[in-house]
């Protein structure tokens, strides 16, 4: 599409309205579908990069059954969601949580 100089303000206005409409639709979609991690499968190289580990370290963790993995033939695949859960499961309590009267447990009401 080619616009004349005189048509540019109207074209930009129309474009701006459409972008605003797309933005509103995206925000509405986000509120209806809360963001959750994608469950992509990662190769050993991608998993090592994602976890900031070397590939040999990751192979060691797999052989010791320390990390969740899927094996298909000779290939290893890692679920991004499972890796995030694995990392989070190693969380250590803070001194405040340890020393609190409830030990970080919220009593039922």
Question: What would you say this structure looks like, in words?
Answer:
The chain has 109 residues and is mainly alpha-helical. The protein has helices spanning 8-32, 44-51, 55-63, 80-89, 95-99, and strands at residues 41-42, 70-72, 75-79. The protein has a domain at 41-88. A three-stranded antiparallel β-sheet has the order 1-3-2. A hairpin with a 2-residue loop joins strand 2 and strand 3. The longest helix is centred in the first third of the chain and has 25 residues, at 8-32. The mean pLDDT is 86.
Q: Which outline best applies?
A: flat
Kindly estimate the percentage of residues that lie in beta strands according to DSSP: 5-15%
- Major sheet: arrangement of strands: 1-3-2
As a whole number of angstroms, the C-alpha radius of gyration is: 25 Å
What is the H/E order? HEHHEEHH
| Regions with little confidence, pLDDT below 50 for 5+ residues | none
Approximate helicity band: 40-55%
Structural category: mainly alpha
Task: Report mean pLDDT, rounded to a whole number.
Answer: 86
């Amino acid at each position: 599409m080619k616009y004349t100089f005189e048509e540019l303000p109207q074209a930009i206005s129309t474009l701006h309205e459409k972008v605003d409409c797309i933005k509103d639709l995206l925000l509405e979609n986000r509120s209806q579908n809360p963001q959750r991690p994608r469950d992509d499968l990662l190769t050993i190289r991608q998993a090592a990069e994602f976890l900031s580990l070397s590939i040999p370290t990751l192979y060691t963790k797999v052989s010791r059954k320390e990390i969740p993995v899927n094996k298909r033939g000779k290939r290893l695949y890692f679920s991004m969601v499972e890796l995030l859960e694995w990392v989070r499961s190693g969380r250590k309590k803070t001194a405040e949580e340890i020393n609190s009267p409830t030990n970080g447990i919220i009593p039922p009401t």
